[in-house]
Design brief:
The chain has 267 residues and is an alpha/beta fold. The protein has helices spanning 5-8, 31-40, 56-66, 78-89, 101-109, 137-148, 172-183, 196-205, 217-226, 241-246, 259-263, and strands at 12-16, 22-23, 26-27, 44-49, 75-77, 94-98, 113-114, 126-129, 152-155, 161-164, 167-170, 188-189, 210-214, 230-234, 254-256. Helix content is 38%, strand content 21%. Strand 4, helix 3 (56-66) and strand 5 form a beta-alpha-beta unit. Bound molecules: magnesium ion.
């Protein structure tokens, strides 16, 4: 199979994971073969994800489990970006985290003192909100109390949902909305649509004509626009054909059913 002419015009691709490369525990149709073809044709590939629930190592393992080669350097995660930001500017402060163990490790590794599980959890200097499947009311209360007492509020993204085989599940943005509504504060966002993840991926890939591919207009396509890169939208995740059709600003260059139909010559 040959690479589709549109994609062949690029030297390298920055691919969103959730909804683009896989949905839940399944790769999207043809994604594994497509990545083999792209790499075989000499295209450089980086993966970026707004999903804060896993560490970089866990994403590498997940990709290998699906049959996709990946190294730690190939995967740019929002958890890593959050750690980088905190380590540069907020070392030594206290933090309360709504998120998984992986996100708590990122925050601790950045040099902040984690208050989760202590009597001081509602008096943190910094509140980090990231997606998790394990949310309890105490977390919302500690986050809201800390922010109302002056803590800075950081979120990994505002993604309202993430795609799963049975539909769209509530994402980081749904949790963050509860903390913002309760506290009256607005979070600073680290992940897409902010361009940081895309820029990090670009630094690792090096110079070249670059295409960003993702399943969300408000995250992937918007982040590509802010980084000054071309974007393609796939409909295998969180966006419907009607929503893609109505897209105005930002607008993807191309809309495709999935990564395979975007990247491989059809017929
Ligand atoms: Mg996605």
């Amino acid at each position: 199979m040959a690479i589709a002419p549109f994609v062949d015009g690029y030297d390298q691709l920055i691919l969103d994971l959730d909804g683009c490369v896989y949905v839940g525990e399944e790769s999207t149709p043809g994604a594994v073969e497509t990545l083999d073809e792209l790499r075989g044709a000499g295209k450089r590939i980086a993966f970026v994800t707004n999903d804060p629930r896993r560490s970089g190592e866990e994403y590498v393992r997940k990709l290998w489990g699906l049959g996709i080669r990946a190294s730690l350097a190939d995967v740019v995660t929002v958890g890593g970006a959050m750690q980088h930001l905190l380590a540069e500017t907020r070392t030594g402060r206290t933090a309360f985290v709504i998120g998984t163990a992986a996100m708590c490790r990122h925050v601790a590794d950045a040099g902040l003192k984690l208050l989760n599980g202590t009597d001081l959890a509602s008096r943190a200097d910094v509140v980090v909100v990231a997606g998790t499947d394990d949310l309890v009311y105490d977390d919302l209360r500690n986050a809201v109390l800390s922010v109302r007492r002056g803590a800075e509020l950081l979120g990994t993204s505002r993604d309202p949902t993430y795609p799963m085989p049975d539909g769209l599940w509530p994402g980081t943005g749904a949790l963050l909305a509860a903390v913002e509504y309760g506290s009256g504060a607005q979070a600073t966002i680290v992940g897409k649509p902010e361009p940081g993840l895309i820029r990090t991926a670009l630094e690792r890939l090096g110079a070249g004509r670059t295409l960003v591919v993702g399943d969300r207009l408000d995250a992937d396509v918007a982040a590509a626009a802010r980084a000054g890169l071309d974007a393609a939208l796939v409909l295998s995740g969180g966006t419907t054909a009607a929503e893609a059709e109505a897209a105005d600003d930002p607008r993807p260059l191309v809309v495709a059913e999935n990564l395979a139909t975007l990247a491989l010559r059809q017929g």
